[in-house]
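Subject: Protein record for review, amino acid sequence with backbone structure tokens
Concerning: The relation between a protein's sequence and the shape of its backbone.
How to read it: Take the token row as a discrete description of the fold.
Enclosed: The protein record, placed directly beneath this head.
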Amino acid sequence: MAVNNKLILIVGATGLLGRPVMEMLDHFGFPMRLLCRNPDKAAKIFGKHFEIVKGDIADNKSLEQALEGCYGVHINLKGGPKAKDFDRIEHRGTAAVVKAAQNQGVTRITYLSGASIARDRLWFAPTKAKYDAEQEIIKSGLEYAIFRATWFMESLPFFVRDNRATVMGNQPLGIHWLAAEDYARMVAQAYLLDEPLYNKFTIWGPDEYTFGEALEIFCSINFHGAKVNNIPLGVLRFFAAITFSRPLKEVLPLMKYFEKYGELGDPTLTDKMLGTPQITLEKWSKCFKAKTKII
């Protein structure tokens, strides 16, 4: 059953962090419309339960059509791997959605940013793209909730292969690991609130662990006997070069960045307005093993 007819457009619904938001909004009864470049492919994933429209962030006409009658739009974009691609997708893509939202009289925008975004870190292309996207939203005059989220627990399985877990580089900084379902619940809460929102929300999970500690916990529950190894970034760069591994080449700059630049912000406002994240890494890991959802 719809919640006071607040139709939400989801941009990036099929992504790792877009789908949990869509599922949580559905859980709370929000009507949704999904913007997809390939509606047939999306229909195979989601079935006929959701309205799926064809469109692209590079096609202004399709954006305006998709946003017609919407109360809000949730933006979940992933740029890269090159600097120009981060800018084209994260920054300019968000700017295009914002402009279309203004033209269609949309009330509220929600956007997934990151917990390490700061003006003194704009030399790093992914950070600059998200920072610039935030500025497009803020200056639009529309209501907004920008989610500056830390590392998601859902990223941990990507660092485990053949019963080996790899910590890329030293990664000495603590991270308040966040479950996507906790984040998705906060997005839903941002739409459940009727009061005007003009906020940046720092989101941290309940516990703090280094990358290695988090992988130890995850592997102890899901991959008994898996070894967690630290491999220097220089070694990984050499390996990526000789194997022509594009995915490895793309992730290494990110891991180099997070060796020195960690979380920023204060989650106090987030916890007060949107609720405190409750899903611990141990609980999430057990649910991952059982392949069950937490809601």
Observations:
- The radius of gyration is 19 Å.
- Residues 8-152+177-204+264-277 form a domain with the Rossmann fold fold (CATH 3.40.50.720).
- The chain has a mean pLDDT of 93.
- Residues 143 and 197 are 5 Å apart (CA to CA).
